[in-house]
Amino acid sequence: MATYSNQHWLLSHIRNSFISTDDSGMCETVMLSDDMPKHYLRKFGNSGSGGDHYHWRKSHKPPPTGGGTTPERNTRHPDAPLQDVDFICYPGLDLSDDEEDMSTHSFDIQMYPEVGAHRFRSNTAQKLEKLDIAKRRAARIKSINYQEEVQPPDSEDFFKRKELPLSKTEPAKKSPKSNEDELSDEGVHSQLTEQLAKSPKQTQNRFVEFARFDGTSQVGMQTKRINVYLNMLPEPDRNYPLKICVLATAKIQEVIGYVCYKTSLQYPEVPLKSLQHYALYMTEDNDDMEDFPPLDNREPCSKFGFSHLTLAERRPLAPVTRVDYHGQLGTKSMTSEEAAEKQAVGEAVCLAMRNTNLNGQTNDPGGAGGKDSSHDNVTEYEKRLLNHNDMLEAPMHRTYRVNIIDKRFFKSDVTLGISGERIEIDQYKNAKFWPQKKPVSTPIDFVAHCEIVERRQLKALLRIWMKSNSSSPSFSTGCTSAPINASVTTLNMGSASTGIAHSPNSPGHSSGLFSSSNIRFKHYDFDTDIHIAQQIQNKLNCILEMRCSDLRRDFLLQRGRKLEKRQLKL
Amino acid sequence: MGDQQQLILATGGYDHTIKVWQAHTGNCIKTMRFVETSQVNALDRTPDKTRLAACGYQCIRLYDLESNCTAPVINFDGVQKNVTRLGFQEDGNWMFTAGEDHHVRIWDMVSAPPHCSRVFDCEAPVNAACLHPNQVEIAIGSQNGSVFLWDVKSERHERIVPEVDASIQDVAISPDGRYLVAANNKGNCYIWSLTSQDQKMSTLRPKQKITPHKRYILRCKFSPDSRLLLTTSGDGTVGIWKTDDFTKWLELCIENYWVWDAAFSADSKWLFTASSDGIARLWNLKEKKTTRDYTGHTKAITALSFKDEIVGK
């Protein structure tokens, strides 16, 4: 078989199999940088196979030589070091036209989110079992036919008129009319009043908002069952996991909240800290916590395939760091479990962080900055840690499914990709109905700002401002650089404050409001889920902040000036 | 009666689930799956508090509250259209159901397999029904604007149309048996005085019309002491009215959400509301603010049931 004897194919296959079966998501971190098949391909196979590749594509036939020659070589020199000729590119693998594309092109492996360690049973087996359960259940349910014939009651007394003490209540009601405003009922108490009086005010669980992620008995929604060990419990209890069922859409942060909620119900005597103190860690089913960093708070829990997790206090810093440009911090080992040491190290890191110049900037983007109170440095430190993580992860490429708002109100489904280098807007592949539009890619240097202009109950209107690279005001309608219609405006649109009004497309209007400085900005509007909008906003602004984007500064400056002017006019 | 019996609140909504809450803490005790195709239109508990009845689109189900089982104990087959209301006679001997199939049915719940012992045809979809405290008359409100008072014992009835081209959304009879109220989708409430003599059917006498809301009224209910009347509406408010003169006593507001249902505590000092934000709330009527939130539903809550008890003076 040509396939199994091709090193390139085998390497790619091993790599992809590993990535696709890894539940933890750790492989992305570890393996992202060293794509061995590609590496070898660059090293050995570039010149020759590139030609081959081109040739095969042209002829649309399997290569006559590739299949025959490789196995021969293999059997002859199984251990020989790779040579130029040995590493033959497998057609269609890896070699993409775009050099910058880092992903390997192997088969898309479809995974079912529910698959755990065992394979799926056949549909029939499952269906039969379901039917069986339903049957057994039905046996216990009494069934009544709604349409059945009327059978009048046998006894005359079946319907019995009850005499109401009408005459007595009337005068009694009239007398206490004087103090009616208080509605006092001569001290009549109900059971509810009594129980409420007995239970102190703080009985209302502070994690109660997370109760809505409860997945038990949800109909038509994907749920996830996880066994969570609770690290903060005393010895006997912590060895038994808390079994929870959450909505699959819940983010890890929300799962933590839900676990805290369940914990506070089940172990009311255990004091719990606030949410940001806790994290979910990967765990063996014998409740040994692993030395991996905690699950990412912002990912939906459906992404991870674990059956067991541990809720524990967030460790000061992950022993595995994701991005290498904060080397100063990453080299410090934080695996120690001892609290005192943890504290000391934490403080050291805290200090280090204050002094560290991340890309020449000291202020943090998350909003924790400003007041530098060194008193409660633990919480302060943790806040910083979160922001720090945000900053580390911000440049990583992520895609979001959002709706772009075209020409005032048409929406179309697009994928918004954000990385440290660029923003890409691509129409979603399955989008029917609308004619396909060209994808847009904007270097991050042209991006000015990202904001949420309108918050509704669940949805939010997200606006990304970028530099418009045309100076003529008339290009705002069929703009060439942005095939997906971005409305071009100058800054002093009232729309930034009113929200709903998308900037008008008429060129005359837009030129009339031409800004004094020569930079013109345009914006794309997206309609999306409020959480996603928040994520995008944080991520993008974090990137901009870290890059010390001049454009952003100019943008905010200009806008500030415009606002001042407007206020002066008013 | 159970001395240490838990006070529970039951809620159901558009997420096809019924949740049972510990009333004084706000903790969810149990979640039951309703029918996958239906919201919960109304909930009521049997007078012995052991069972919870729920109705929705093409279904009526009774659940056992005492066991851990979340499957129903009684299921009605062949139900057509929405069943909008149900309720129990005070001894639990029979149950009434009202639905958009134009019929109000009485179910004998004591005989071995429960069976239907009376049917009343309203000739229009029925939106609401409520039992008179005398336990033999049922007030009915229909989509074509008719209000009926139906005597289950003698099978006689009376019909009134207070306002044409309006759909009656809810009806209520005060626990002291003095007033009948019908609320419609235009935001109007019609009030009649009820009088009854020597075992005969009550007679209706128009008393007053009030306009509590500008929009859709969803429910109206009297407080257990009959001194207050509440109306819940699609305008996000609950109006509470004094029954002495039917003037407004106070208004509770859940902005931007429909308030679908509400229930008083037995001493009329507390009020539960169910609204479309998926949160049930407990209000302290004296202080006019919420003291508990019951969160857990993922969609609008459309019905709730709360059975309280007076524990002496």
From TrEMBL, chain A:
Q: Biological process GO annotation list?
A: TORC2 signaling
- Domain (Sin1 N-terminal): residue spans on this chain: 18-164
State the Pfam families in the record: CRIM, SIN1, SIN1_PH
Basic and acidic residues bias: start-end ranges: 157-180
Which UniProt keywords are listed? Answer: Kinase, Transferase
**What GO molecular function annotation could you give as one example from this UniProt entry?**
kinase activity
Cite the CRIM domain residue spans from the record: 189-314
Taking every annotated instance into account, which residue ranges of this chain make up the domain SIN1-type PH?
396-546
Q: Where is this region: Disordered?
A: 51-83, 145-201, 357-376
Cellular-component GO terms for this entry:
cytoplasm; plasma membrane; TORC2 complex
Compositional bias ranges of the Polar residues kind: 190-201
Provide the family line: Belongs to the SIN1 family.
**Would you tell me the protein name for this molecule?**
Stress-activated map kinase-interacting protein 1
Organism of origin: Drosophila suzukii (Spotted-wing drosophila fruit fly)
Per the record, the gene is Sin1
UniProtKB/TrEMBL annotation, chain B:
Please give the subunit comment from the record: Part of a minimal complex, TORC1, consisting of mTor, raptor and lst8. Interacts with mTor but not raptor. Does not require raptor for binding to mTor. Part of a minimal complex, TORC2, consisting of mTor, rictor and lst8.
Question: What positions belong to coiled-coil segments?
Answer: none
A Pfam family of the record is WD40
Keywords, A to Z, come to: Cytoplasm, Repeat, WD repeat
Positions of the WD repeats? Answer: 9-31, 76-109, 161-202, 210-242, 259-293
Gene behind this chain? Lst8
One GO cellular-component annotation of the UniProt record comes to: cytoplasm
Q: Which family does it belong to?
A: Belongs to the WD repeat LST8 family.
Please identify the protein, giving its name as recorded.
Answer: Protein LST8
Query: What's a GO biological-process term for it?
Result: TORC2 signaling
Q: What does this protein do?
A: Subunit of TORC1 and TORC2, which regulate cell growth and survival in response to nutrient and hormonal signals. Essential for TORC2-mediated regulation of cell growth and phosphorylation of Akt1. However it is not required for TORC1-mediated functions such as TORC1-dependent regulation of cell growth, autophagy and phosphorylation of S6K.
User: Where does the UniProt annotation locate this protein?
Assistant: Cytoplasm
By its UniProt entry, which CDD domains does this protein fall under?
Answer: WD40 (cd00200)
Q: What InterPro entries does the annotation carry? A: MLST8, WD40/YVTN_repeat-like_dom_sf, WD40_PAC1, WD40_repeat_CS, WD40_repeat_dom_sf, WD40_rpt
